[in-house]
Amino acid sequence: MKTYTVQAFWDDEAKVWCAEGVDVPGLCTYGNTIEHLMQKLGVMIPELLEANGILTAEDGDDIPFKLLTETTAIAHRSGDA
Predict the structure, then answer these.
(1) 54 in Cβ contact with 45 (< 8 Å)
(2) What is residue 36's predicted lDDT score, i.e. its pLDDT?
(3) Among residues 18, 1, 2, 3, which one has the least CA distance to residue 66?
(4) N or C: which end of the chain has fewer CB within 10 A?
C-alpha cells in the first residue's frame, strides 16, 4: 500500500500551518496547530484521492500518509566567542 506525502510549513504572517499534497492532487489546506491540520488531512486526503480516481476498491479504507514539516527560526550567538 502506498504512503502519500504531504508537505507542511508554518506561515508566520497568517500564524497557521499550511499543507500541500506532494502525492495528493488538489490538496491545499491549513490549520492553527499540527493536530488540527492532521484532522483535516485525515478527511481531505481520501476525498481528493477518490475524486481524482487514484483510489481503487482494493486500496481499502485506511490510507497512510506522512506529513513533512518545515519551519524556520533564528539562532543567536552568545557574546562569548
Answers:
(1) no
(2) 97
(3) 3
(4) C
Q: What is this structure's pTM?
A: 0.81
Residue 46 lies in a domain: yes
Percent of all residues in the chain with a pLDDT value above 90, rounded to a whole number: 73
Within 8 A by CB and 6+ apart from 78, the residues are: none
**Considering the domain boundaries, does residue 76 fall inside one?**
no
**Which three cell numbers mark 60?**
481499502
Q: How far is CA 20 from CA 49, 58, 76, in A?
A: 14, 25, 31
Reference 8, options 57, 71, 55, 76; nearest CA is 71
Residues 34 and 5: their CA atoms lie apart, in Å, by 15
